[in-house]
Every structure is written in structure tokens, then in C-alpha cells.
Amino acid sequence: MGVCTNLAKCLLIFTGACYLVSAGVLSYIGIWVFSTYDHFDEIADSSLTLLPASIILAGSVFMCIVGILACIAAFKNHKVLLAVFFSLILLVFIGEVAAGVLGYVYRSKVNGVLNDNLNDAINDYNLSSYKEQIDYMQQEFHCCGVHNATDWADSASWKTNHTGLVPESCCKPTHGNDTCVPEITSKDIYHEGCLDKLNSEFRKNLVYIATAAVILALIQLMALLSTCILVCRTREERNYQTLNETGGSGLRV
């Protein structure tokens, strides 16, 4: 067995180990993105992060299977296992590239989609699902309204009975006996809008997803190369053995 074959085997085993570790990391990233989005599922379009995150989670399941198969194929040096491994890893590679492309494409569209979603949510603030998530967002990101606190003065569902006021979730933390006066002009509330902060949060998620996809794509390219080397070497060794057997039998009388 040549040095090239041994090197390819070691690289394939290393790739399999990387796949198992990466599957765990990707699962964590995907679950983290889903848990982050859970607080904004009514006010933000799911295409912002859930579609790429779903592909990442599906890829992590494949990678766990592929990682185990890579180690077995490397030890057994079996042509069929190597072919199955090559096919699976190619599917995962295509999925990760798709996730990376989606992450890059949606990165530039996040601001416009969020702006429309947040304006719709503020206009329908009296609906319980919107109210809960808008309040959570304003308290979590220390913001008020879409662009600033004055957006509440234009909210169709809010301004009717709350002229000049903002929701209490816009209030800054109070100390002691201090109380918050939730008026648009009050110093007790946050005046910075939530759009930029929420946009930054979703863009950060997409950056994590795209970075993970690029790193895994590099690992997958190494695995594809190693598999091709092993398949070619296995075929050469079998052809060489066949020639030896044929040559040996030809010398017999």
C-alpha cells in the first residue's frame, strides 16, 4: 500500500472526525438560530434565517451519518462504501453551498423585510401575538418603535386610545421609588428605534450560518479528494493483483 493511499486514508479518517464534531456544532448553531427567532416569529419573515438554518440542521444530520461512514470506508477500503460516502458527501456539499448562497443573498434584504414586518406589527399591536413579541423586542434591545419612539404616534391600533404615549416596554429600568412616564417626549423611555438593532441581530445569525457553510465546504472538498484517491488506488491495486494472478497462472505447465 503506497504512501499516497495511507495519506488519503488518514485524511479521510480526519475528515470523518471533523464531520462528527461539525455535526454537533452545526446542530447547536441551528437550534440557537431557531430559539432566537422564536421570540420574533410573528414580526419577522421566516425566510430571513429559518430557511438557511433548516438546511444547516438537515446538513448536520447527514454529516453525522457521513462522518461514521467515512471512518468505516477508510478502514475497510471498500469500493462500494467509498462510492456511497462520495455520493452522500456530495449531497451535503450542495446543501451547504445552498445555505451559504442563501445567507449571502438574504443578508442584503434583511433591512427592507424587517422594516415592513415591524411596521405591520406596530400597526396591529393590540393583537396578543404581536404585543407580546414587540414588548419582548423593545425590552431586550432597549429600543422603542421602528425608527424611533414617534412611530407609535402613527400606529393605527395604538394612537386611538393612547395619544402621545408609548407602550411601557419602551421604559428604561427604574430605581427605587422612581416611576416611568411612558410619553413620547419623556426622558424615561428609549428613543432609539428597534429596526437597526433587530437587523443587526439577524445579519449576525446569517454571518454565522454562512461562515459555517464555507468552513464545512473546505472540509468536504478534502474528503471528496481523498475518496477519489482511495477509489483510484483500490482499482489500481486490484488490477495489479489480477495481472499478477494471470501472469502466475501462465507460468504453470
From TrEMBL:
Highest rank taxon of the organism: Eukaryota
Chief site of localization: membrane
Family: Belongs to the tetraspanin (TM4SF) family.
GO cellular component: plasma membrane
Membrane-crossing segments per the record: 12-34, 54-75, 82-106, 206-232
Protein name (record): Tetraspanin
Subcellular location: Membrane
